[in-house]
């Protein structure tokens, strides 16, 4: 078949355009950028790991390590989607079996997210194009509906009573439970709280949570008093972590693990349903939504104002004020808040 021939007028027009731009045909050939040689997984994973937040490093570090273990000497642009799927199958087969496990879907999602994070950096660094990113060619599993639900008041009271009547530091555990119930904060928000984040006059605390988000959240005068007293008694430095053990060491996620294991040993339903701090968040946000509406609940939870999964364009215009959050807190705790409406 004869190859199509360019019209001479088209060629002349292209030459004229190049001349006006000061570019010769040779410049197009000689000036093409040379892509840098892609590094190996063993070389590149530490670079990416050092460039992300501590939270992402904690979430993805295990899966990056598995990639290095499997492909350490290979360049990052030499792995194809089928090999990524093989890694996923291996991770799922070797995962820790939990009673609330869901067939390894979470492990699969985390492997893909970890590799997508790595390859996004590789694309930005010029080692490949987005079209060549193999992690984007592996679909994430569809998320199943959460099994968490709001706890009834009676159950909430049960677990609080166990928390403050057992263990080696009931004062700390009681403070943790109340902090999560009042604010619906995530564990990261509680662990990141510092004495300088307390606005005692307005009864507000500054929460720093996932995605680098910051938000001021109202708390009751009682909780504010206990947070301040805890910081003083346990010698928390102004810009250091507020929540500490009696020996003044900072608490970690392990405190939560031990707390729920201990509560579950005394309350079988807690162990059976794998109740955690996130259930407290779910409980509070559900209560706020039922009593004060979606906009207040969304703000109370610290969710983004507009996301692709939101309920519609109207959500971007419906915003709750701090006064509305304070009113919701007052109704929840039975205490008047400085920023709330005047009692009627």
Automatic annotation (TrEMBL):
Coiled coil region boundaries: none
Protein's UniProt keywords contain DNA-binding: yes
InterPro entries, A to Z: DNA_brk_join_enz, Integrase-like_cat_sf, Integrase_catalytic, Integrase_recombinase_N, Tyrosine_recombinase_XerCD
Keywords attached to this entry: DNA recombination, DNA-binding
CDD domains tied to this protein: DNA_BRE_C (cd00397)
Domain of life the protein comes from: Bacteria
Gene3D superfamilies linked: 1.10.150.130, Intergrase catalytic core
Keyword DNA-binding: yes
Residues covered by the Tyr recombinase domain: 146-330
PANTHER family in alphabetical order: INTEGRASE_RECOMBINASE PROTEIN MJ0367-RELATED, PHAGE INTEGRASE-RELATED
Family affiliation: Belongs to the 'phage' integrase family.
Protein name: Site-specific integrase
